[in-house]
Amino acid sequence: MELSLSILSFPVDEQTARDMEQLLSDLPTEHQTVLHPNLWRAADSRGFAVIAYTDQEELIGIAAAADMVGLHHYEWSLFVHPDYRRHSLGTALADGVSHALEQRQAESKLAAFAGDMEISAFMESINYHPDFNEIVLSAKPLRDDKETEGVEFVPYAGAAKELMELLTASFDDTMTPIMEHNMVDPEREIWLLQKDQQLIATATLVIEENALWVTAFAVHPDQQGRGYGQQFLTWCRQLAFQRGLTEVLLDVETDNDALYVYEKSGFQRIQTISYWKHETV
Fold first, then answer.
1. Is the pLDDT of residue 117 over 70?
2. To bridge 77 with a disulfide, which of 14, 34, 107, 242 should be the other Cys (CB 3.0-4.6 Å)?
């Protein structure tokens, strides 16, 4: 059997996007998300696909990688049609990803796989090793638009120093370049929770398809344990309802203490994603 492999930058052409969707059509939605289908056609997305066709023009394998926040940090995954998994196609796709990442001078690269897929042996064979796991949680939008007493939610308006101080206190300096990107990306909304003009918490909101993603969510350490996190998440669910969205999503590492806050706020676990880090030989 003869195969042809190609590397295509996003956005891919319409026919290729339809072929990719057809290949993944039997996969659960949560297994498709790690292949970044929302970015395949996006004109401003930074990423690429490695695709494998047979000589009969049947698409039988894809890998997709995306620079999620424009900082040369790529996340990628792959899928091979079950009938062709004994043809070393996964290795060929991974090699294509590696080549494309070198061309793009990627500073880091993580592979992501949803659920409990048996991929340990394969990942280790291409020199990737477990890094961390994340849980994706989902909640339905809330109809209740009653104002929350004592606090206000306002869009970010340029107080960068105060915002960065909150994020550094909650995380560390690694959040700085991410928030700098969020501040200039028109598709990312930074919101602040304030009380008596004091900044208490922040979150960056991103709409993907019909879902509202809550990212870069942080409550100042001095204010934690007072219910502000739950108030913010409730407000996010109300905002999603106002905008006619169907779901609110967020993710958190499995060992993060905030997992309890999210679940107490009405979020339910829907999937686990394992991340694998490339080890330099």
1. no
2. 34
Query: On the CB side of 75, how many CA atoms lie within 13 Å of its CA?
Result: 16
Whether 227 contacts 210, CB under 8 Å: no
In one letter, which amino acid is 22?
Q
Tell me the per-residue pLDDT of 236-265, one tens digit each, with 9 for 90 and over. Answer: 999 999 999 999 999 999 888 888 889 999
Nearest to 35 by CA among 43, 27, 266, 99: 27
One CATH from 3.90.1150.10, 1.10.287.40, 3.40.630.30, 1.10.600.10 for 3-126: 3.40.630.30
Tokens of 22: 């057809």
Please state, in angstroms and as integers, the Cα–Cα distance from residue 231 to each residue in 109, 129, 195, following that order: 35, 38, 12
281 vs 274: CA distance, rounded Å: 22
Query: Which helix (DSSP H) or strand (DSSP E) does residue 193 occupy?
Result: strand 188-195
Q: The pTM is what?
A: 0.86
Q: Are 3-126 and 138-272 equal in CATH topology? A: yes
pLDDT (mean) for 207-216: 93
Nearest to 248 by CA among 136, 83, 93, 127: 136
Instruction: Report pLDDT for 87.
Output: 74
